[in-house]
Specification:
Blueprint lengths: L1 H25 L1 E7 L4 E7 L4 E6 L2 E8 L5 E4 L3 E6 L2 E6 L2 E9 L5
Antiparallel strand pairs: 1-2, 1-8, 2-3, 3-4, 4-5, 5-6, 6-7, 7-8
Keywords: Lipoprotein, Membrane, Palmitate, Signal
Protein name: C-type lysozyme inhibitor
InterPro entries: MliC, MliC_sf
Length: about 110
């Protein structure tokens, strides 16, 4: 019996890993923005309070921070700030993506 359990353990662990990835994908929304400079694709994970996107060929993962209005995500260098259907991306307090408008917003 122990040998059977040991033989099945890798399959059970792989199944758990697949399930976790599946749940993670279900909790992640893809948001498409059109900014003045270029398009921006943002992955929003509400349970983790995190956004991720590619900028300057780097994958950025920003955690939700304090905001008086809208939603603000930061890693200490970059900030993604959104309010309603618009967003702005900052790098060290300098705007790098401006006037980003959400495409096909869900109402």
């Amino acid at each position: 019996m122990k040998r059977l359990l040991i033989a099945c353990l890798p399959a059970l662990l792989a199944g758990c890993s697949y399930y976790n990835q599946f749940v993670e994908r279900m909790n992640t929304d893809t948001l498409e923005y059109q900014c003045d400079e270029k398009p921006l694709t943002v992955k929003l994970n509400n349970p983790r309070q995190q956004v991720s996107f590619v900028w300057d060929d780097k994958l950025l993962n920003l955690q939700q921070g304090l905001s008086a209005s809208g939603a603000r995500y930061t890693d200490g260098v970059y900030v993604f700030w959104s309010k309603g259907d618009s967003a702005t991306v900052y790098k060290r307090d300098r705007i790098v993506l401006n006037n980003c408008q959400l495409q096909n917003p869900q109402r």
